[in-house]
# Entry
Amino acid sequence: MQPIPRRQAALAPPAVPVSEAPPAAALPPAVAAAVWRGDQLGRAALPTRSSGFAALDAQLPGGGWPCQGLTELLCPQPGTLAWRLLAPLLRALCPAGGPARPAAASPVLLVGPPHPPHPPGLRADGIDERGLVWLQAHTAAERLWATEQLLKARAPGVLVAWLPQARPEQLRRLQVLAGAAQGPVFVCRPQSAAREASAAPLRLLVRVGATGDDGPWALQVD
# Structure
């Protein structure tokens, strides 16, 4: 895992110190209440879960994956790098060899992954597949509907949804619902979505980096 480049505006400190920005008190109350400032994500006292990568936790606001908000994972190829990035989190929630859990208490919910989860591969990575609930949704409408219903029901644990065709207004609705989530909420989308507007407070571009200490499949996260 390579450290996130400090030059990336999404995760780096703002170029202008926050103290130089117009204070909220200088704005009319109605306007101040409607303005969301980018630095609020890093300052909000939101619960987080460690990503399992020390270099990534050092850059993430709050020191880990936020539990009450939407996180977008943008990958050049669907169904591979997101699993590798989230593997330490899933391993902590569903350790291999642990006790079986009922479906209602499963800590990881998967909506519409592009490929079926591979139990032998999960076990080799220390993840117990019995802790995963896989919702096999084929169409974009089905995946979006299932994701919204799980968020409305405040399902426990981590939610990972593959929504490559989600529109900005749909992501905005998911972000509102994710504000009441009990755990991290991830939406996996293609790398090309980086050019589109998004209501997700946190967006990460995940790619394969150069060969390093982590081997030829080292992750590079922007």
